[in-house]
Amino acid sequence: MTVLKGANLLLMFLLELCVLGSAIAWGLRLDAPLIVRIPAAVVATAVFVVVWAVFGAAHDARIPVRGWKRAVLEVVWFGAAAVLLGFAWHPIAGAVLFLLWLGNAGLRIAWDQVYTEQAADALRAAQDE
Fold it and tell me: Which tens digits make up the pLDDT trace of 89-124?
């Protein structure tokens, strides 16, 4: 079971990378001149990076969100990436991305891989020792 749990966390990381790839792909696939597409890709990717760094990073978020707020953040973050991927490539690709995240989230909840306040407190206590 430990291998499966590790694989699920690896999948979460890969899905996070797919979000960034979706933003890049969307920007580069816009029906616009290259001088517009490149900045669009950079800005879209930067927005996703900043939102995740501020609210979503498991241990280093500036304003960490937990519980239902974390669930809303992930639904919006991965949902927006799925929409961008659907526009950039194919709607089925966007749906697959979102469904993979949904299954991953369900397993993270079932296997207690969700970063909670208790986990944060335990991490802080371990660091203080």
Answer: 999 999 999 999 999 999 999 998 887 667 666 767
pLDDT digits (tens, 9 = 90+) for 63-79: 999 889 999 999 999 99
CA distance 11 to 58: 15
The tokens for 117 are 């306040």
Which tokens is 9 given? 């966390």
CA 53, CA 32: separation in Å to the nearest integer?
29
Cα(76)–Cα(70) distance, rounded to whole angstroms? 10
The rounded distance, in Å, linking the Cα atoms of 90 and 34 is: 21
